[in-house]
Amino acid sequence: MDFAITDAALAIGHHILIFALAGVLAFELGVIRPGMTATDITRVGRVDLWYGILAGLILIVGFVRANFAAKGWEYYSVNHFFWAKIAAFALVGLLSVPPTIAIIRWRRAVTADPSFVPQVGTVRRFLWLEVFFFALIPVFAALMARGYGMPA
To answer: Which of 20, 35, 61, 71 is the least crowded, having the fewest Cβ atoms under 10 Å away?
Structure first.
């Protein structure tokens, strides 16, 4: 496989994974609402597992891409918008922890009592914060890709 194809394959894979993660986040925001049923809780629990898997794959593919694709680590390592993008991604990951913990607790509660109905207000606030910071990632990526954020 030549360099251009490798670069394109890594870019495509990275973008597909990011869109899939956005889909999982949108799903969770749509399903986690007042009046959730036991089926909703079970479903969101299964989907939340994919959130973690996709986030891990995004990191792996992203860092492989940064090191071995078109611009190389020398470009990314000094770009302020690259690090802003990484920080936003890390913040989204940290913000996803409380909802994941809540979902695990809900799954246990609904197993013990199928009529369990969770309180979702705090979890929804975390999800909306995730959406906000997730939306900054493509902004930083677009600026970074165009050379903004490079040291003077």
So the answer is: 35
Q: Give, in order, the Cα–Cα distances in Å from 26 to each of 46, 79, 132.
A: 14, 30, 12
Q: CA-CA distance, 20 to 13, in Å (whole number)?
A: 11
What does pTM read for this prediction? 0.92
Q: Greatest CA separation found in the chain?
A: 61
User: DSSP per residue over 109-150, as a string?
Assistant: HHHH-TT-----HHHHHHHHHHHHHHHHHHHHHHHHHTTTT-
Q: How far is CA 84 from CA 88, 90, 112, 143, in A?
A: 6, 10, 43, 11
pLDDT (mean) for 80-94: 97
Collapsing DSSP to helix, strand or coil, 67 comes out as helix
pLDDT tens column, 31-52: 999 999 999 999 999 999 999 9
